[in-house]
Amino acid sequence: MGQESGVGNGESEQQFAANVVMTENAFAIPDSRLPNPVAIGAYLHQHESKPLLRFITCGSVDDGKSTLIGRLLYDSKRLFDDQLAALESDSRRHGTQGEGIDYALLMDGLAAEREQGITIDVAYRYFDTDQRKFIVADCPGHEQYTRNMATGASTADVAGGGGGGGGGGGGGGGGGGGGGGPADLLRNRGVRKVGPYMVPRTMCSAVSASLATAFKIRGLSYSLSAACATSAHCIGAAADLIRHGAQDVMFAGGGEELHWTMSVMFDAMGALSTGFNDRPAVASRPYDAQRDGFVIGSGGGMLVLEDYDHAVARGARIHAELLGYGVTSDGADMVAPSGEGAVRCMHMAMQGLERPIDYLNTHGTSTPLGDVTELGAVREVFGDNAPPLSSTKALSGHSLGAASVHEAIYSLLMLRDGFMAGSAHIDELDPRAEGFPILRQTQDATLNTVMSNSFGFGGT
Fold first, then answer.
1. Looking at the structure, do residues 206 and 136 belong to the same domain, yes or no?
2. Within a domain: residue 191?
3. How many other C-beta atoms can be found within 10 angstroms of the C-beta atom of residue 161?
4. Catalytic residues
5. Domain limits at 53?
6. How far is it, in rounded angstroms, from Cα 264 to Cα 259?
7. Which first-to-last residue range defines the signal peptide (predicted)?
């Protein structure tokens, strides 16, 4: 939970998990909300000669980090009088302990937050006593805040990590925000701790709205949400808008960055791989006989779609032509597709196409059912003439709402550079995948037409 170092010559650093480490020297902090004793005493005694202590606390919101460090500082009785007075005042006005001292407020930076007019879930405080200096940064599970803090001169030596924050749905993503954070904050610490940026961070149109604002886009801007097929739907919708003359240029794609509390929900439904936790690099293995679920990913991507004449007129470099796309729902099951919708979707995408498909980038997520269901749909569409196929998720993992645009980009790279990526990590081919032209190694190839499949929960 913390980091300690000296200053000057002979500087040293050590990691210390004060909220989980149990030692014979551990002691309980009196009247603390913390349920477990903490090994603080031995730690301070060991490093009592160090003139500077730096703590970086990372974890879930309201897990006692601020209270732990705040009580440590308060009990030293060596804070400045104005700091103690401010703590007592803030405890009465903003605290959660009634008439008692709310030690967490030493870390919460209320005065600084009031000056900025906003509330954030990060605090940086400096304490100077006659014995040593304390620098404390409290970052409850939000990696981007830690990065922001590290940019300032006063916190240039602060570095740490946390979970990733929540993703936007639709024209840039696949799902809502990061789990129960806002409710927990409201319940435990009040509405101010929820913060004014929670809505724009977690609304379904977060990515499209953020990009439109950042790049001053004045054309239409909106988001779609269709689970793991989201960004494919966005690409198709953008093509329709151009085809019907509503726009000349569209940026279409998606983004996804899940907080671990969202990932846990996929784990709870048995969708994530657990059989390769000792070898996570090979856990994503579509079509392998031992696959047991997908590996969650994150990221984002955008395609620039443009009317052909408009692109030529401005001298744009054209990477490919979008020949068609299909969008269907099989209406069978929320998480177990029948394959019938995938058949219609592929037929729709190839309608009017008078050239063969040279390569197929499948949806293949590495789930036992989904992979073979899609292969069955491929056989029904192509018969015995299925094109060479592979799933790039073996290398990238499954980035949910961003997966479609990622795989569209991968397919464009293969088209441009003349190769077909193999499905990695197939040690033993699933017997149900026998007879399909599944690429197990990357191959050089001259490609003219490629297709990328994307499917999602709800049969989309």
1. no
2. no
3. 12
4. 228, 363, 398
5. 2-155
6. 9
7. none
